[in-house]
């Protein structure tokens, strides 16, 4: 018999399409519906697929690549490694292996659960969801309408009656090889099941035991061919050898077609147990051919074609193959008389109730003939084949040209980007250099200024520094006195004008003048609100009022200037004294300065320090600067205090004696930061 490709690209995937453009992912068992269409349990895609009469592959139920459990319509439904399919009264029965249940897909694509508790494996009889299965792999239907299940991991054959009650037909649940009645027979991972010619006995591919078993309606199990030993031998009954047989199907002549998975062959078993090899050489691979010239890789399922021959689910090649002894025979061919295509000429309905075209049969035949003619022309040496080759060459040339153009554009863009990057780097380097030059110039100018200031300070002695500070202070005091006099004059003039205005106005006008004295500088806003300068009001002297406002504004400005002058005076005095102290400490050599005593960093929160400061803080002998940043004081004495001076000044304090102060100063040198510098 000759093997040919029915559908599948040979690579794992889930694409729908025709013939070799479609993809499968480890297809398992197969089935054929009443219309002659082929059903596929696409194991790793978690879907149920169908191949129609024209070789087109579609997905009936499930979502490719999404394992799970869900009842629903078409792609909404979810399966978990479906392994077996079988047709029963228009429904597609599915052995949903890893969901551990039996499902059904209607002709309209609706999926429901028939028996088993989804997702929960077990070995329990019962009704509907109360029953339990464990990885069921294949399913069939007897003549009474009972569903028979190869319950793989429970090592048993289960039965579901039309009412949904689940019982165990044969098998104890323990893995083993033993013929016997329902309570003693043992199986080992059965993965294939079908019925005999009359639909009474079920035939089981006992995968783990490498043999073919037969089970009666009462559960009596006997071995038909092979023994519990892996191998490859054609022969009679127990002389034959299999290696992990999986799928099994009954052909029109009452023979059993077996997918001998590990032997990479398709075998045939007669009703008497004679085993022969139909196709396959034993080596794994893929090739079409006759007999041993054909190669398979793990065939997992088989089904008989309505046109003769049989179909093979070539699992690891991800293909559906067709085996027939008639050349050029199509596996799907024309629909049988019993299919839904029968009687089309007389009209009728599709499975979902859609009306059929009375002329549909002739149209379908015409479509088939047209398709075959197209295939012939495409496979020939002339005509369409040459045109297709020509167009393919032109498309490749256009594609190459476009790719070259895009590559040229890419290189040009890269060159432009590189050039722009170089320009930006150069610009950045130039700007960085300019910034460095400018910074150096600024630093140099500052350094020159500081050095000049230091040189000028080095030329001045302490007396000159003090004299310069006194001169600046005198100038500031003179300016402040001048400002005070101006303020007093303005106040006097303002008071006189107020008195004159008050004597000439009524009580109501006096009250109004008081409001004007408190008047805000925002005259336009107040004028808008109160209408103070109404020219129709004869009682209001607008000229006098404006003069009063100007005087008030001048007073405020003078007060602000006075406050600012005082702040400047304090700041200059503090800054100059700090500079003088710093210079005097750092100065080395030179002419001997006037005797000065400096006491630094005595904490003012000490009560004795405060009283000592009060006793000695009398000009011109002392100068005091308090640094508020660290709560310390600096005291400068222009001459050595004598004992008489000390007694005279200390006498003004609260009974503090000179001896106590001297003793305290000695102790302070240990507990405080204390420095006494006596210049000679």
Task: Throw out a few tags for this protein.
elongated, five-stranded antiparallel sheet, alpha+beta, 34% helix, 680 residues, 33 strands, 9 helices
- Biggest sheet statistics: 5 strands, antiparallel
Total helix count?
9
* Spatial strand sequence of the major β-sheet: 26-1-29-28-27
Strand content range:
15-25%
Number of strands: 33
- The end-to-end distance, rounded to whole angstroms, is 132 Å
User: What percent of residues adopt helix (DSSP H or I)?
Assistant: 25-40%
What's the layout of helices and strands?
Layout: E1 2-7, E2 17-18, E3 27-32, E4 38-42, E5 47-51, E6 56-61, E7 72-73, E8 82-88, E9 91-96, E10 101-105, E11 110-115, E12 126-127, E13 136-141, E14 147-151, E15 156-160, E16 165-170, E17 192-195, E18 202-206, E19 211-215, E20 221-225, E21 235-236, E22 245-250, E23 256-260, E24 265-269, E25 274-279, E26 289-290, E27 299-304, E28 310-314, E29 319-324, H1 360-379, H2 384-459, H3 462-503, H4 507-517, H5 523-530, H6 542-586, E30 597-603, H7 607-616, E31 622-627, E32 632-637, H8 643-650, H9 658-671, E33 676-678
Antiparallel strand pairs: 1-26, 1-29, 2-6, 3-4, 4-5, 5-6, 7-11, 8-9, 9-10, 10-11, 12-16, 13-14, 14-15, 15-16, 17-18, 18-19, 19-20, 21-25, 22-23, 23-24, 24-25, 27-28, 28-29, 30-32, 30-33, 31-32
């Amino acid at each position: 018999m000759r093997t040919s490709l029915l559908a599948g690209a040979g690579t794992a995937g889930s694409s729908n399409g025709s013939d070799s453009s479609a993809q499968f992912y480890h297809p398992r068992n197969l089935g054929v519906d009443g219309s002659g269409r082929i059903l596929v349990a696409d194991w790793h895609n978690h879907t149920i697929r169908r191949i129609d009469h024209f070789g087109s592959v579609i997905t009936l139920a499930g979502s490719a690549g999404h394992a799970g459990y869900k009842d629903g319509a078409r792609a909404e439904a979810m399966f978990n490694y479906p392994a077996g399919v079988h047709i029963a009264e228009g429904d597609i029965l599915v052995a949903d292996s890893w969901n551990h249940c039996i499902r059904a897909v209607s002709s309209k694509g609706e999926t429901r659960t028939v028996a088993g508790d989804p997702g929960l494996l077990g070995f329990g009889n019962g009704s509907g969801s109360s029953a339990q299965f464990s990885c069921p792999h294949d399913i069939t239907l007897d003549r009474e309408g009972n569903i028979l299940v190869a319950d793989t991991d429970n090592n048993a054959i289960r039965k579901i009656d039309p009412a949904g009650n689940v019982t165990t037909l044969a098998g104890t649940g323990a893995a083993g090889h033993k013929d016997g009645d329902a309570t003693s027979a043992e199986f080992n991972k059965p993965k294939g099941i079908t019925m005999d010619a009359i639909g009474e006995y079920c035939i089981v591919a006992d995968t783990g035991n490498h043999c073919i078993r037969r089970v009666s309606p009462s559960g009596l199990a006997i071995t038909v061919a092979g023994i519990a030993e892996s191998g490859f031998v054609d022969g009679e009954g127990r002389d034959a050898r299999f290696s992990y047989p999986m799928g099994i199907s009954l052909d029109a002549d009452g023979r059993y077609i077996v997918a001998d998975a590990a032997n990479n062959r398709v075998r045939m078993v007669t009703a008497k147990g004679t085993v022969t090899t139909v196709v396959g050489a034993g080596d794994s691979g893929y090739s079409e051919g006759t007999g041993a010239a054909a190669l398979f890789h793990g065939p997992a399922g088989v089904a008989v074609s309505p046109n003769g021959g049989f179909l093979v689910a070539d699992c690891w090649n991800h293909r559906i193959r067709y085996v027939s002894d008639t050349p050029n025979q199509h596996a799907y061919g024309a629909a049988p008389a019993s299919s839904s295509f029968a009687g089309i000429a007389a009209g009728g309905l599709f499975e979902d109730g859609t009306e059929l075209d009375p002329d549909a049969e002739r149209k379908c035949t015409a479509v088939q003939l047209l398709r075959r003619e197209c295939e012939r022309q495409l496979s020939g040496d002339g005509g369409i084949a040459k045109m297709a080759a020509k167009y393919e060459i032109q498309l490749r040339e256009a594609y190459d040209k476009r790719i070259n153009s895009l590559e040229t554009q890419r290189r040009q863009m890269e060159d432009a980007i590189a050039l722009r990057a170089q320009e930006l780097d150069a610009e950045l380097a130039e700007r960085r250099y300019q910034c460095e030059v400018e910074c150096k110039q600024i630093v140099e100018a500052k350094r020159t200024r500081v050095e000049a200031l230091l040189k000028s300070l080095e030329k001045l002695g302490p007396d000159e520094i003090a004299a310069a500070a006194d001169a600046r202070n005198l100038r500031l005091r003179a300016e402040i006195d001048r400002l005070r006099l101006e303020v007093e004059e303005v106040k006097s003039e303002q008071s006189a004008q107020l008195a004159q205005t008050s004597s000439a106005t009524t009580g109501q006008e006096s009250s109004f003048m008081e409001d004007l004295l408190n008047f805000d500088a925002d005259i336009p806003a107040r004028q808008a609100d109160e209408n103070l300068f109404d020219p129709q009001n004869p009682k209001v002297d607008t000229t006098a009022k404006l003069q009063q406002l100007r005087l008030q504004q001048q007073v405020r400005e003078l007060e602000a200037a006075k406050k600012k002058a005082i702040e400047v005076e304090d700041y200059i005095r503090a800054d100059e004294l700090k500079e003088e102290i710093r210079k005097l400490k750092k100065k080395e050599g030179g002419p001997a300065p006037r005797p000065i005593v400096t006491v630094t960093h005595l904490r003012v929160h000490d009560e004795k320090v405060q009283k000592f400061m009060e006793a000695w803080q009398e000009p011109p002998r002392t100068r005091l600067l308090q640094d508020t940043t660290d709560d310390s004081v600096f005291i400068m004495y222009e001459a050595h205090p004598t004992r008489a001076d000390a007694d005279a000044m200390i006498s003004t304090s609260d009974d503090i004696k000179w001896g106590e102060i001297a003793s305290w100063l000695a102790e302070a040198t240990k507990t405080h930061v204390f420095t006494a510098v006596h210049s000679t």
